[in-house]
Write a structure and sequence with these properties.
The structure holds 2 protein chains of 2 kinds. Chain A is mainly α. Chain A has helices at 2-8, 11-14, 19-44, 62-86, 96-120, 142-163, 170-194, 216-223, and strands spanning 52-53, 56-58, 231-232. Chain A contains 8 helices and 3 strands; from the N terminus they run H-H-H-E-E-H-H-H-H-H-E. Chain B is 56% helix and 3% strand. By secondary structure, chain B is an all-alpha fold. The chains are: A mainly alpha, B mainly alpha. Chains A and B meet through helix 1, helix 3, helix 5, helix 6 and helix 7 of A and helix 1, helix 3, helix 6, helix 7 and helix 8 of B. Chain B: InterPro entries: Ferritin-like, Ferritin-like_SF.
Chain lengths: 238, 270
């Protein structure tokens, strides 16, 4: 408000009336375009379905969209670690397989829990079962498995960090927070296996001491190569 | 409510009304998103937040309190690692590298939080230190305390996320920044735990450890908890899971009062 008071005491503030109509007109042009586009979108979409659009399977919107987004990522992680445990790398070191069995259980719990919560707490339809595409991963190779795990875990952390702000329901935010720190623990563990001391190195934590945060669309783009179905995260949290 | 009419009227007293919104494209995008939802009921909230940003007034005391609470914990951690490095007992190589990296992050968190509080016209707390009388004489116990601090930090940030929902510093979501710090603390905690030969995640059994660790994992919702959103994860999911896996799959919150209790971080800070 102080800025308004200042400008009203400043004659120069009133000496620029010419700018106002121009700005106002351009504003209404934008507003008109927005309203038109909105009407089109409204007529073209129904809210509750996992509708398949040209952009892929929609993860949905609002809080349910965020939960489905998390559920999709957890499906991917759970499937990956299930495969790691089923056909362990031949050169895993002592203790590593045991820890990966635990990680596999954590991710399966996240997956099953999120599905149950979407159905019974959010009263919504979970996104369908996804088909993983792990053809690029050499499961017999420790290095290949660890590098993929690092990708998934760092991506999972950045995904939860970036999506938290879209949640409107505090209880869901707490759940996301309870999961993301476990993902960060996984990430640190896998990174240290690849190179001891890289748990939070400069490639993942910035100069302000912040982990990465990514927008849903960017995360799904990064994960898409590992999923056969095409996913659309454009309306997640919106 | 007709937002265009309001903006039109505002433009009569404030010719720069549109220039005040952080990004015009963002405004139009948000307008479109709001309209798309058809959430007329939400419109006043949206408009209020739009103008709150545009004419940014003081941030609520409770948000500053939360940030100062986080800053207190970061100051405690920063000073602890400074003392640990000064004590000169950390073995050279990987251990010293890890402690130096963690110290660097805690220092960055202190600066970031202090700067943010100042930018929001609050007063950052200063002078919070790790109680020298509680500083362990040996490296092994120093690592125990480091684990206690890191796992406490993870639980503490988690406990405050709700208070930061929708809170902005300019165009930055304070919640997102808190989450970005929170996951770094979790990475620290995982590494310190492995330096001690512990699992990087928290098994149910940690809740019964002696001080200083045990209390870190207890509280109204202990880390041994296996129930989330009303679901007993060991019984109510399609596949049964062990209590240890169910407990480790979720980290739990600690409330501010719990964190500042004398048996936890509150007993270490002066």
């Amino acid at each position: 408000m102080s800025k308004i008071i200042n400008s009203s005491g400043d004659e120069a503030g009133f000496a620029q009336p010419l700018y106002v109509p121009i700005k106002r007109r351009s504003f209404f042009m934008y507003a008109g375009a927005t309203a038109g586009a909105t009407a089109l979108l409204l007529s073209g979409c129904s809210d509750d379905d996992d509708s398949v659009t040209p952009n892929g399977i929609s993860l949905g919107s609002g809080d349910v969209g965020v939960l489905n987004y998390a559920y999709a990522l957890e499906q991917l992680e759970a499937a990956f670690y299930a495969a790691v445990v089923k056909t362990p790398a031949t050169d895993f070191k002592t203790g590593e397989l045991d820890y990966f069995k635990q990680v596999a259980a954590h991710e399966a719990i996240h997956r099953d829990f999120l599905k149950a919560a979407i159905v019974n707490v959010a009263k919504a339809t979970p996104v369908q079962d996804l088909t993983p595409d792990f053809s690029k991963i050499t499961f017999t190779s420790r290095q290949s498995v660890l590098e993929t795990a690092r990708t998934f875990e760092d991506l999972g952390v950045a995904a939860y960090n970036g999506a938290g702000k879209y949640l409107k329901t505090a209880a869901y935010l707490v759940i996301a927070g309870q999961i993301v720190s476990v993902e960060a623990r996984h990430a640190a563990y896998v990174r240290d296996l690849l190179s001891n001391g890289s748990f939070a190195d400069d490639s993942i934590v910035d100069g302000s001491g912040l982990d990465k945060a990514m927008e849903p669309v960017d995360v799904i783009n990064a994960a898409q190569g590992f999923i056969k179905e095409k996913l659309d995260a454009a309306s997640v949290g919106k | 409510m007709n937002i265009f009419r309001i903006i039109e009227q505002l433009s009569e007293v404030d010719s720069d009304v549109l220039g005040r919104f952080d990004s015009r494209r963002a405004v139009f995008k948000t307008l479109g998103d709001t309209a798309k939802k058809g959430a007329l009921a939400a419109a006043p909230v949206f408009v209020a937040s739009l103008f709150q940003k545009a004419y940014g007034q003081t941030t609520s005391t409770s948000v500053i309190d939360v940030l100062n609470y986080a800053l207190t914990l970061e100051l405690l951690e920063e000073d602890f690692y400074a003392k640990m490095i000064a004590a000169n007992q950390v073995p050279a190589g990987a251990p010293a590298g890890a402690i130096a990296l963690i110290k660097k992050h805690e220092t960055a968190h202190v600066k970031l939080l202090s700067d943010t509080i100042t930018a929001l016209k609050g007063t950052p707390v200063t002078g919070k230190k790790f109680n020298p009388a509680k500083f362990p004489a040996d490296y092994t116990t120093q690592l125990v305390v480091a684990q206690a601090l890191e796992d406490t930090g993870v639980r503490a940030y988690k406990g405050q996320a709700g208070a930061l929902m929708g809170q902005m510093a300019g165009a930055t979501s304070l919640l997102q920044v808190a989450l970005q710090i929170h996951s770094v603390e979790a990475r620290h905690a995982a590494h310190i735990r492995t330096m001690r030969g512990q699992s990087p995640w928290i098994p149910a059994s940690d809740s019964s450890l002696p001080e200083p660790l045990g209390p870190v994992y207890t509280g109204a919702i202990p880390e041994s908890n296996v129930t989330q959103a009303g679901y007993d994860l060991t019984k109510q999911l399609p596949t049964p899971y062990s209590a240890t896996d169910a407990a480790a799959a979720f980290d739990e919150i600690l409330t501010k009062d719990e964190v500042l209790a004398s048996s936890r971080a509150g007993g270490l800070v002066i």
